[in-house]
Design brief:
- There is one protein chain.
- The protein is built from 10 helices and 4 strands, in the order βαβααββααααααα.
- By secondary structure, the protein is an alpha+beta fold.
- The chain is globular, with a radius of gyration of 17 Å.
- Bound molecules: S-(P-nitrobenzyl)glutathione.
- GO terms for molecular function: transferase activity.
């Protein structure tokens, strides 16, 4: 029995790895756990069968035997708990790595995700420019603090952990923008994550889904 995750049948990001199944795929590849994928249309995500798995009608979900999980951070944590390779064995180091998981999702991601939504949904609103400026100031504050903490280290706290995995996926949404490039050590940190063989396997797998959906 191998775990099954859900993902977009045709990701709006055109296979660039920004959808949150990417985090789960990457974590599974890091620990060497094979998995299956159930691809869902937007319509199917809102139907009872999927709502039974995901109360908000979203992807990803993770099923393994009689366990059904939603929330990409919780799924990555579950994988990290069950396999070596994503969280340290030392209790204090493990607790710090988990703190970085929360920091990625709860401190750094919100302004970055809100900026992405504003740029898609509110571009024509009268408040657009000001809203964007406020969000970008907030992002720069977070990235400045993160850059100062990372310094010239490879990862946030010793060995690569699930905290780095989540932080890299959060920062990847800024790839190519001056918001990230203005912090060279953060741009290098993201590139380090992308260079990991497990990341590449995960990225190629989700890109193959989009490519197949586009040529089908
Ligand atoms: N907090 C949840 C959030 C899950 C979530 O946002 N899922 C999105 C896809 S990943 C978020 C996402 C969407 C699109 C892009 N993109 O670049 O096009 C990137 C990321 C979804 O199912 N959206 C459909 C819906 O809500 O009806 C988690 O981390 O699992």
């Amino acid at each position: 029995m191998i775990p099954i995750i859900t993902a977009f049948e045709r990701s709006p990001d055109r296979g660039q790895g920004l959808a949150r199944d990417m985090r789960v795929r990457w974590a599974l590849e890091e620990v060497g756990q094979p998995y299956d994928v159930r691809l869902l249309s937007f319509k199917a995500m809102k139907e009872p069968a999927h709502l039974a798995l995901h109360p908000f009608g979203q992807i990803p979900t993770y099923e393994d035997g009689d366990l059904a999980l939603f929330e990409s951070g919780a799924i990555v944590f579950h994988i990290a708990e069950r396999h070596a390779g994503l969280l340290p064995d030392d209790a204090n180091a493990r607790a710090r790595a988990i703190a970085w998981m929360f920091a990625a999702l709860n401190t750094v991601e919100p302004p970055i995700f809100d900026r992405a939504l504003v740029r898609i949904l509110e571009r024509d609103e009268p408040w657009y420019e000001q809203r964007l400026r406020v969000l970008e100031d907030s992002i720069r504050k977070r990235l400045g603090d993160l850059s100062n903490r990372l310094g010239d280290a490879d990862w946030l706290d010793g060995a690569f952990s699930a905290g780095d995995l989540l932080m890299v996926t959060v920062l990847l949404r800024l790839k190519g923008s001056s918001l990230l490039e203005d912090y060279p050590n953060l741009a290098a940190y993201v590139a380090r994550g992308e260079a990991r063989p497990a990341y590449k396997r995960a990225f190629d797998a989700q890109l193959a889904v989009f490519t197949a959906a586009s040529t089908g």
